[in-house]
Specification:
The complex is a heterotrimer.
Chain A (H helix, E strand, L loop, with lengths): L1 H29 L2 H9 L5 H10 L16 H10 L13 H36 L4 H15 L2 H15 L15 H32 L2 H8 L4 H24 L1 H5 L2 H7 L4 H10 L3 H29 L1 H4 L3
Helix pairs in contact in A: 1-4, 1-14, 2-3, 5-6, 5-8, 5-13, 6-8, 7-8, 8-10, 8-12, 9-10, 10-14, 12-13, 13-14
Chain B lengths: L4 E10 L12 E11 L4 E5 L6 H8 L8 E9 L2 E2 L5 H7 L4 E4 L3 H4 L6 H12 L4 H14 L5 H5 L8 H13 L5 E5 L7 H18 L2 E6 L2 H7 L2 E6 L2 E7 H6 L4 H8 L48 E2 L6 E3 L1 H6 L13
Parallel strand pairs in B: 3-8, 3-9, 6-7, 7-8
Antiparallel strand pairs in B: 1-2, 1-4, 4-5, 9-10, 10-12, 11-12
Helix pairs in contact in B: 4-5, 4-7, 5-7, 7-8
Chain C lengths: L4 H25 L1 H13 L1 H16 L3 E2 L16 E2 H5 L40 H37 L1 H16 L2 H12 L3 H28 L2 H8 L4 H37 L8 H7 L12 H28 L1 H5 L3
Helix pairs in contact in C: 1-2, 2-12, 3-5, 3-12, 5-6, 5-8, 5-10, 5-12, 6-8, 7-8, 8-10, 9-10, 10-11, 10-12, 11-12
Chain lengths: 321, 341, 342
């Protein structure tokens, strides 16, 4: 199994290279540094200012290695990204890495409780629905899920802000505070909204997994031994279902860091998602570039973690026969 | 004296797509099946794929998968009808009085639980003994079913075991609670031929030492010859003939049984054309209202396609359902006019 | 040749309708598909009718022609190409907000030019909200439908090609898929639009690029499986040419996946566009844009709810209907139900 993980890691590195190349193409050739400079300085800026800006931000050198092997933007792009030297924001010249460091905490404070609570809600619900398969509980459950899934997250956010924030005034509509005593109040609404918008598709997915495992032969064997339906669900089905569920969860871990763009922006949480939105609105390409890179890195990391977790959970992988 | 297991007019249906689900609508994959199983005997239930033999077995234990349902009949175990039992009672029967082993050992064992743990579960479901005792008992069982290096195998996962070993684990699991009846659904079909012989020998030994009755589901007449005391032949959901093994193999009455035996390669000379039963098994939607074999039967005559044959009881405890046998046989004696080719 | 956009749009719509016609004819002739369609209809009449309604509105809004503008109408240029939907609501503009079926303006209480006619009220620019909602249907169909129509064949081309022919092409495609799939969807989407410039075409292209990957992976995996099936080997042994094998043996077996993917991709795309609109980089005229523009209206005193209500309901209605039909299609087209009969 060690060999397999090693191979996945190496392939992952290859993919990172591919991602960086794609980013380079997108950010340096499809968008001209000229345009970025203009957007930062304004259309009326004189040509000298634009040139100076380009020099300051390192855009003035040749793009491709065949133009100049020792000094080209492609190699530099790779070098910097791989060493996490992210440089300055195109919008306000602040060091990107500082902003990222600041943003991680708030993002995590939102996404980690969201993930945990989401699991705690979705798995029992889907177990319940799968247990009562083909009865009206199941049908109702699926119907509710499809309904919940069909509502745009935007509407959940606006609806929740309006209903709970304005009408009922239970929680503040937006804002953030580092004080751990005050923080939960600000996180309450975004977490509620995040749960609501995600639970529909989560429960449907888990339900499918449980139903599939329930129809396997070994369930029939267990039943023929005289095991009760509850026991079958809890001991046999759940254990086997954990494998795909775990994959699902581990894949989501990287996104704990990148934060939820919508939730953070709507609810004023100063995390990485907010940073991304700001970058969009201020045409801050270097920050956007960095955020995509980090997101990809974490995603690839998540996939490797998933492969590793298989080894822990599935004895078929652990013990190579 | 009544038999250990008496199945009477068992009927299991699956809904057909065209109708809505009324209790009498649907296709009877098990149609008025009746047979007895005595204590300590091996009854083979023989038929082609789709004849309903597996469904019969599942119906006895009430494990028929949805949307199928057992809709009529009786399954009497020690006098009481299992079909009337509430589910909680039924669970107590499963695994203790009647156990079942299945065809595919690969998928019939839980892949994430060790072999030992699965047998221990079977024990602890019905006996309130501690883990250590259950584990010891499991180890003894492993020895009894011929699993080498039993201590290591207790903690092995199913994928680490060969097909034959997995089937032995299944057998150990099924016999752990000393059931009176073992239902074996094609226990060797998925195994290599050499392993088949071993498993069959194991079943024979266990059956003798423990005096367990076995309902053996199979399509292989060779296995029938090895293991069975009596044989019931099924076709398209109905039983067509029941007889003691040697009688059936040497003197089959029903044309279908005759056809089956004729088509065994060993019975033909090399170079001859292998006899076959012409045609194929009709799908449930095309069953004739009379005898279901009539579409392919060489002895077919007028009543066959329209009238379902009644049960005949020729001498020797045999039973057969066939119009042709009826017209040729004097039910009082065991002579009949058919010559076996 | 310089073609005016509205003529191009008319032609494309016509071509699409003809395509749909062929599809319907095919389904009617093929027994399996006909039965599947019939089963689907019997199970989900309401949802199918709802989707049909949206489709009808979208099609009605897709044919534009010039001329025929009455003299007294001032909000449009006399020579602008207008669709049927446009013409129904011609000249109904007010000054600003008004509540549904109101007689007076929302702020200020001045009498409306067309009192009591605005079923869903008017927005900040005085436009009839029902009109805007109806226009949004075409945009949604464009985003969901057209993009899928481009993404799916693309995914098939690469996926089936990679799965069937293997070798270097497969390596390349697999690497491409892995790379694209490693980039968080929304971020990649945003990046593409920022980089290509805003506008309908950019958004559709970006949506297409980010959504073809999933189906490409799926069709590649399925092709790998199908390629090993015995009847494919048999066909090859009989001397059937490779393209013919792909066309006649592989693709038909992917048909059910194509249908399911199309329907489910549709709702995902429309919802994604809503998010993009909120970020300011969506498509003009979409419901998402309406919702985004109406965000602050709920916090006013008294609240203005009809704008967001109409757009939200229209969006929800379409997505719910499509999801419901999609689920039912998935159940009906499950190969297990297609092949067995009880």
């Amino acid at each position: 199994m060690a060999a397999y993980v090693l191979r996945r890691l190496v392939y992952g590195v290859g993919v990172v290279m591919g991602v960086l190349f794609l980013l380079f193409v997108l950010f340096f050739t499809v968008t001209e540094p000229e345009d970025i400079a203009r957007k930062a300085l304004g259309d009326k800026a004189p040509p000298e200012a634009i040139e100076q800006w380009k020099v300051n931000h390192g855009y003035d050198r040749p793009l491709w290695p065949w133009q100049d092997w020792d000094d080209n933007l492609l190699f530099e792009h790779y070098r910097k990204m791989l060493t996490f030297d992210f440089g300055l924001s195109d919008a306000d010249d602040s060091p990107i890495i500082d902003r990222i460091a600041e943003g991680m905490g708030p993002s995590l404070s939102l996404t980690v409780p969201l993930l945990v609570l989401g699991l705690m809600a979705a798995i029992p619900l889907s177990l319940l629905v799968a247990f009562f398969r083909e009865t009206y509980i199941d049908r109702m459950g699926v119907l509710v899920c499809v309904f919940a899934m069909s509502v745009s997250t935007l509407l959940y956010i606006i609806g929740a802000q309006f209903l709970i924030g304005k009408l009922l005034r239970w929680y503040p509509i937006s804002g953030f505070d580092v004080d751990p005593m005050l923080l939960p109040r600000f996180l309450a609404l975004p977490i509620i909204v995040g749960l609501l918008s995600g639970i529909g598709s989560d429960v449907r997915f888990y339900r499918t997994v449980f139903l599939e495992e329930s129809s396997r032969d070994f369930v029939r064997t267990a039943r023929s031994k005289g095991a009760s339906e509850v026991r079958i669900m809890a001991r046999h089905v759940l254990r086997n279902a954990l494998i795909p569920i775990l994959t699902h969860v581990v894949l989501a871990i990287p996104f704990l860091f990148t934060g939820s763009i919508l939730l953070e922006a709507f609810f004023g949480i100063p995390g990485l998602g907010s940073i991304t939105v700001d970058a969009i609105q201020s045409n801050d390409f270097s920050t956007l570039r960095t955020m995509v890179y980090i997101g990809s890195l974490l995603f690839i990391l998540g996939q490797v973690l998933t492969d590793l977790s298989y080894g822990l959970v599935d004895p078929r992988v652990r013990f190579d026969s | 004296m009544s038999a250990l297991l008496e199945v009477r007019d068992l009927r299991t249906t699956f809904p057909s797509s065209k109708r809505s689900a009324g209790p009498d609508d649907g296709l009877p994959v098990v149609d008025r099946v009746s047979f007895d199983l005595s204590s300590g005997e091996v009854l083979a239930l023989v038929g082609e794929s789709g004849s309903g033999k597996s469904m019969t077995a599942l119906s006895i234990l009430r494990l028929v998968p949805k949307p199928g349902r057992v809709v009529a009949g009786e399954v009497r175990l020690g006098g009481e009808n299992l079909l009337d039992y509430p589910v909680t009672e039924m669970r107590r029967v499963r695994g203790t009085r009647i156990s079942m082993i299945f065809q595919e050992p690969m998928t019939s064992l839980n892949p994430v639980v060790t072999a030992g743990a699965q047998v221990i579960e079977a024990i602890q479901l019905h006996d309130s003994i501690g883990y250590a005792d259950a584990r010891a008992r499991t180890r003894e069982l492993f020895v009894e079913v011929g699993i080498p290096d039993p201590d290591a195998r207790l903690d092995a996962y199913p994928h680490q075991l060969s097909g034959g070993l997995k089937q032995r684990v299944m057998i150990a699991m099924a016999l752990s609670t000393r059931p009176e009846i073992l239902i074996a659904d094609e226990p060797t079909t998925a195994l290599d031929v050499t392993i088949q012989a071993q498993i069959l020998a194991l079943l024979r030994d266990l059956q003798r030492t423990r005096n367990t009755a076995i309902l053996l589901i199979t399509h292989d007449l060779g296995i029938v010859n090895e293991l069975a005391d009596r044989v019931a032949v099924m076709y398209a959901g109905r039983i067509v003939e029941v007889a003691e093994r040697t009688q059936l193999l040497s003197n089959p009455l029903h044309p279908y049984t005759q056809g089956l035996l004729r088509s065994i390669p060993a019975r033909s000379a090399a170079g001859d054309r292998l006899p076959e039963i012409p045609g194929t098994v009709p799908p449930p939607s095309q069953w004739p209202s009379g005898c279901r074999f009539s579409t392919r039967c060489p002895a077919r005559f007028e009543p066959c396609a329209d009238v379902m044959p009644e049960e005949l009881r020729p001498a020797g405890g045999r039973r057969v359902w066939c119009h042709d046998v009826a017209r040729n046989t004097n039910p009082q004696t065991d002579e009949h006019g058919e010559e076996e080719a | 040749m310089n073609v005016e956009p509205y003529i191009a749009s008319n032609v494309v719509t016509l071509v699409l309708l003809v395509g749909v016609g062929f599809l319907v004819a095919f389904v009617r002739r093929n027994r399996l598909w006909r039965e599947a369609a019939r089963t689907l209809w019997s199970r989900r009449k309401v949802a199918i009718l709802t989707v049909g309604l949206y489709l009808a509105i979208g099609v009605l809004d897709s044919f534009a022609w010039k001329g025929g503008v009455p003299e007294d109408v001032v909000d449009v240029l006399p020579n602008a190409p207008l669709t049927l939907v446009d013409r129904l609501f011609l000249g109904t503009r007010e000054a600003s907000y008004s509540a549904p079926l109101a007689e007076i303006e929302f702020y200020g209480g001045q009498p409306l030019r067309h009192p009591g006619t605005h079923l869903l009220g008017t927005d900040i620019l005085g436009r009839d909200v029902l009109y805007l909602s109806l226009k949004g249907a075409r945009v949604a169909l464009l985003i969901g439908g057209l993009t899928s129509l481009i993404a799916i064949p693309l995914a098939l081309l690469f996926g089936v090609g990679a799965g069937y022919f293997g070798g270097r092409f497969d390596d390349f495609v697999f690497f491409l898929i892995s790379t694209l799939a490693s980039m968080p969807g929304l971020l990649l989407l945003i990046t593409l639009i920022m980089v290509m410039g805003r506008g309908t075409l950019s958004v559709c292209v970006a949506l297409g690029v980010t959504s073809w990957v999933g189906f490409c992976r799926l069709s590649r995996a399925e092709t790998l499986k199908l390629r090993e099936l015995e009847y494919v080997s048999a066909a090859r042994a009989l001397g059937v040419s490779e393209p013919a094998i792909v066309l006649r043996h592989i693709l038909p077996n992917l048909a059910h996946l194509i249908v399911i993917t199309f329907v489910l991709m549709f709702s995902g795309l429309v919802l994604s566009e809503a998010v993009l609109s909120w970020l300011g980089i969506g498509v003009d005229g979409s419901w998402g844009q309406m919702i985004d523009g109406a965000r602050d209206e709920l916090s006013r005193e008294p609240i203005i709810w009809w704008n967001i209500g109409a757009a939200g309901t229209a969006l929800f209605g379409l997505i719910l209907a499509v999801n419901t039909v999609g689920d039912a299609i998935r159940d009906v087209l499950d190969p297990r139900t297609l092949r067995d009969s009880p």
